[in-house]
Specification:
Elements lengths: L18 E5 L2 E9 L3 E5 L13 H4 L4 E5 L17 H15 L5 E5 L1 H11 L7 E5 L10 H8 L1 H5 L3 H13 L8 H8 L4 H13 L4 H8 L8 E6 L8 H9 L4 E5 L6 H4 L1 H13 L6
Parallel strand pairs: 3-4, 3-5, 5-6, 6-7, 7-8
Antiparallel strand pairs: 1-2, 2-4
Helix pairs in contact: 2-3, 3-9
């Protein structure tokens, strides 16, 4: 695999993962940064590996950081014949860990990416060293009211004029962060959903938000036997901060930390704080209790 230059990771216009891997008949966009113990970053929705661009350099100082686009997101097409769903993402992650030859990597997941890493570990059986969960879409109800409305009226949204749908996605993205995104950054998130094909892509993702995919995960949270860190945007408008303590209470030894000044996309609002918290978590030597 190609080791992308760390110095390019924060460049909005140049963000593109260099590798293409074949997993279950799907092409997965991926990239590797740095050198050291393995850490796998898993983004959520509606985003891609682009979310991690400002976090990667700090983590790559002492770790080998693996990033990828979920099937149906970023530069990864959907897995043929499979829904764009958490259960699919978790199976693909399990295969990637095997194909990369990783032994007990640290898994870091945001939003549905958090559900993906937990399902990969607890259901697919991926051995891990540690787990970090950021604004995790795990405990019900994690499907937001906006997404629920789209699911109930998919036929309306699929036939909606594209310029109207674009306004809706722009307004929704505005609530993902506490700070207003620069126009170039907002475009990087919204670009994949532009036009008629982008509109269908967005709705294909929303269609398969399924809390049944996380029920089995929630049932197994008490069996986690590795250190778990939970980071949550203190001003998250999509998933209330109360989820952080609830999730921590269900995982033995887990610690929840609120990130001040951050919304749901906390790696956009406070990338330095997130990177510092993750770097410290990765290097802690205290035994798991």
């Amino acid at each position: 695999m190609t080791r992308q230059q760390i110095s390019n990771t924060a460049d909005t216009d140049r963000w593109r993962l260099p590798d293409r891997l074949t997993v279950d008949g799907a092409t997965i966009a991926a990239g590797v940064f740095g050198d050291g113990p393995p850490v796998v970053l898993v983004h959520g929705t509606p985003s891609s590996s682009y979310l991690w661009r400002a976090v990667i350099p700090r983590l790559a100082e002492q770790n080998t950081v693996y990033v990828w686009d979920l099937p149906g997101y970023g530069d990864s097409p959907p897995v043929p014949g499979e829904p764009v769903a958490i259960r699919t993402h978790a199976r693909v992650l399990a295969r990637l860990v095997e194909d990369w030859g990783l032994e007990r990597p640290v898994l870091v997941g945001h939003d549905i990416g958090a559900a993906t890493v937990l399902r990969a570990h607890l259901v697919e059986g991926v051995p891990v060293r540690r787990i970090a969960l950021l604004d995790a879409a795990v405990l019900s109800p994690w499907v937001t009211p906006v997404a629920q409305h789209m699911q109930r009226h998919l036929d309306v949204y699929r036939t909606m004029p594209t310029h109207i749908f674009q306004r809706i996605t722009e307004a929704h993205l505005d609530t993902a962060t506490r700070r207003r995104l620069p126009s170039s950054v907002a475009e990087a998130y919204l670009g994949p959903f532009a036009g008629a094909s982008g509109q269908q892509r967005y709705l294909d993702q929303v269609q398969y938000f399924d809390e049944r995919d996380t029920l089995e995960v929630v049932d197994k949270l008490g069996t986690v036997k590795v250190p778990v860190q939970i980071l949550w945007g203190a001003d998250d408008e999509w998933l209330d901060r109360s989820f952080a303590d609830d999730l921590a209470g269900r995982i033995p030894g887990a610690r929840a930390t609120l990130v001040p000044g951050a919304g749901h996309f906390l790696a956009e609002d406070e990338p330095d704080l997130v990177a510092q918290a993750l770097a410290e978590f990765l290097t802690k030597n205290e035994p798991f209790v």
